[in-house]
Automatic annotation (TrEMBL), chain A:
Keywords: Cell membrane, Membrane, Transmembrane, Transmembrane helix, Transport. The chain crosses the membrane at residues 12-33, 72-96, 108-131, 143-164, 185-209, 240-261. This is Sorbitol ABC transporter membrane protein /mannitol ABC transporter membrane protein. It is a multi-pass membrane protein. Its main location: membrane. It comes from the Bacteria. It is found in: Cell membrane.
Automatic annotation (TrEMBL), chain B:
The chain crosses the membrane at residues 12-37, 65-94, 106-123, 155-178, 199-228, 264-284. Coiled coil: none annotated. Residues 69-280 form the ABC transmembrane type-1 domain. It is a multi-pass membrane protein. It comes from the Bacteria. GO terms for cellular component: plasma membrane. This is Sorbitol/mannitol transport system permease protein. Belongs to the binding-protein-dependent transport system permease family. It holds the Pfam family BPD_transp_1. Keywords: Cell membrane, Membrane, Transmembrane, Transmembrane helix, Transport. One of its GO terms (biological process) is transmembrane transport. It is found in: Cell membrane. The lineage of its organism: Bacteria, Pseudomonadati, Pseudomonadota, Alphaproteobacteria, Hyphomicrobiales.
UniProtKB/TrEMBL annotation, chain C:
It comes from Breoghania corrubedonensis. Its main location: membrane. The keyword Nucleotidyltransferase does not apply. PROSITE patterns: ABC_TRANSPORTER_1 (PS00211), ABC_TRANSPORTER_2 (PS50893). Coiled coil: none annotated. Residues 4-234 form the ABC transporter domain. InterPro entries: AAA+_ATPase, ABC_transporter-like_ATP-bd, ABC_transporter-like_CS, ABC_transpr_MalK-like, ABC_transpr_MalK/UgpC-like, Mo/tungstate-bd_C_term_dom, NA-bd_OB-fold, P-loop_NTPase. This is Sorbitol ABC transporter ATP-binding protein /mannitol ABC transporter ATP-binding protein. Keywords: ATP-binding, Nucleotide-binding, Transport. GO terms for cellular component: ATP-binding cassette (ABC) transporter complex, substrate-binding subunit-containing; maltose transport complex. It is found in: Cell inner membrane. CDD domains: ABC_MalK_N. SMART domains: AAA (SM00382).
Amino acid sequence: MARASSNRRKTVVTVLAWAIGLLIFFPILWTVLTSFKTEAEAVASPPSFINFHWTLENYAEVQSRSDYFRHFLNSVVISLGSTVLGLIIAIPAAWSMAFVPAKRTKDILMWMLSTKMLPPVGVLIPIYLIFRDIGLLDSLLGLIIVLMLINLPIIIWMLFTYFREIPGEILEAARMDGAGLKAELLYVLTPMAVPGIASTLLLNIILAWNEAFWTLNLTAAKAAPLTAFIASYSSPEGLFYAKLSAASTMAIAPILILGWFSQKQLVRGLTFGAVK
Amino acid sequence: MATTHSRAAARLMLSPAVLLLLGWMIIPLSMTIYFSFLHYNLLIPGTHDFIGFANYSYFLTDPAFFAALFNTLLLVGGVLAITIVGGVLLAILLDQPMWGQGIVRILVIAPFFVMPTVGALVWKNMFMNPVNGLFAHMAKALGLQPFDFLAQAPLASIIGMVAWQWLPFATLILLTALQSLDREQLEASEMDGASPFSTFFYITLPHLARAITVVVLIQTIFLLSVFAEILVTTNGGPGYATTNITYLVYAQSLLQFDVGGGSAGGIVAVILANIVAIFLMRMIGKNLDI
Amino acid sequence: MGEIVLDQVTKTFGHVQVIPPLDLQIEDGEFVVFVGPSGCGKSTLLRLIAGLEDVTTGEIRIDGEPATHTAPAKRGLAMVFQSYALYPHMSVKKNIAFPLKMAGLPQSVIEEKVENAAKVLNLTDYLDRRPGQLSGGQRQRVAIGRAIVREPSAFLFDEPLSNLDAALRVNMRLEISELHNSLKTTMIYVTHDQVEAMTMADKIVVLNAGRVEQVGSPLDLYNAPRNLFVAGFIGSPKMNFIEGETAEAHRATTVGIRPEHIAVSTDAGSWAGVVSVAEHLGSDTLLHVQTENLGTLTARVDGEFSVRHGSRVFLTPQEDKMHRFDARGLAIR
């Protein structure tokens, strides 16, 4: 490759990459734009790109008609609740596997991963019936428990890969320096583990926020998070493009922003540490 | 640091997670197996007779099952093919020096964070709708007849939507893997006189093998259970054209309230997933070093 | 004080005995080096003394007190790790202060001790940096600083220089030696590098497969190696070993002669040969000579010696510097 042409090459690559990037991003961009249009403009032919009458009334309408905010709160409670609960159970488990590995540690980890492969329909009916009988159907608590369980393997794996990177010599150094178990936890382990725990938290909030099998099947009205809220637009309200767009924008915006911050951790978390 | 004392403590710390996951696997699964041998419909209260394998023979001889099995394979295979090929190409493109790389990355990764119900509804209404969708507008502007995607090519349309959501994932992982490729290896192959083409096949692609394995594994787990996209767009139709196993079991159990039949379907889905999983775990087990 | 005694200490991992019964006496103020090839058990031995591993059987006494079951922190020892094991989230100051904080010393005392240590180790300008912002040599100094502020009865070093480049290694070697001269505290130092062992130690413990092969001062080991292993391990370039008729003539199975104890001549000598490689170092010249019936021998000549590949030379060993070994590999005295 001639180095002299590298600038021209860079230009070509830039143009191509931006074109593809914008193409992939376009449906999201179009949704956001449409959310600021009136219904008439939203279906106008030919459609206008930015040259339209910008309005916020769709957002007001979505909120007043279907109570966006309540569903948003449900999503927050479910995703945060299931993640925090999962972390409480996963941190000691990942911790012990990373620092006191036994002969069966690898087997246990692989088995945990395999539970992730159990198709949800295999257990849908019993969970549905159990929840119906003990009153967890359409409840936030029920969803918190289910989502915690389905994401637990991922949480444990992610934490395990982070914890394993904390060098054992550091813990030994702390012990030589006279740190007891409490001081070791407080001054050495926790500060070193916090970044890993934070990334795990972030990724799992995203996964739980977007989970759309259990949230759709186990909720009706009361506990419905945003996934179910949007599903109610499938017909015929979906034909009101501007309102659909406003509702969609509000459903994805918070997590899109979180997601952009957690790109790196996403790769690691979702590949069970196999790709970093 | 491994003393007997810490071993016991470690086991204690591990047990809640193991017990929960074990319970989550065993209790509902054994209930599903039990239900699958019963004549059990929520609309017919009272008797739950033991009927042996009748539910299975009903489910497995139902033409809908074969349609669903075929659709599931097409959906998983189609999305995997698009995302892997597209992901490799896109990752290589994004790995080149360019202006605004960070922003392009953000644009490309975005669809992964869009919840499945939103993605599917936006595609269905705002793009694929034969009257007001953007594709219809484009067709009309070109003087063509608008194409009714979800009626005329329903499964392909759904494959497209799901691939749009998963392409970013594949790209991001392959890009991460690509960035760990030793630059000196590429320079060495350039010195050895390899063309960019053979460099790709002999150096880059083998380096990506592990990442591709991982992408296949993870995506398969999720793609076998695609549900929301079908629920909000086609409801499995027209006919059974977009019904996959997951959706078929859902329809059997929660729309027709046939707990027995649905359970038999669920167990079939578990067995199919296990067949796939055995292959995948072998692959990833070889690739993961713990 | 820092007298450490190991009495019949063994260590078993699973079914593998990595340390067979071992006795060792380390006097107060001594600089002791454990040296041996990788996997010889030298690090395990150090970790047993530190208390990071439990001994399987036997006893460890520190200053006469049994310490076998004492927690690492209570043994009054400080350790410098191979990876330095600095706390990445703490500044240099906090790293050095950590053991003092754990000991519950008042803040003013901690400040003073950290400052003194920093002065000794040339770290004063870096006290507020994090380990990640330091060079390898600076990190090494921080790790040593963290060890000396505790005023331990003995320092344990686990291959502390193996992550440094060659030039820095020589510097740090001198610094650690100087530190030992000024502190006069017992130091136990683990390395696989016999040069470090020879230059730093008062007493060298040569280990092989968990066994102590020989204990002695550097020159003891150099002049009177107890067996073939020590003879081959100590000294650089390695001792030449000769078997067969030449050895039998000396009533031994194997004889050893160090390269520096072979005289080289271009005219006449005991063994004739051809130079295969000549390494001209300026200060001395190393010749690898292919002899007619003794295999390749290495010889060392002071200063310059102008021969090249292919030159014909004659080697003459100094008879009084010959080492003789019997069939079991033990030295014949």
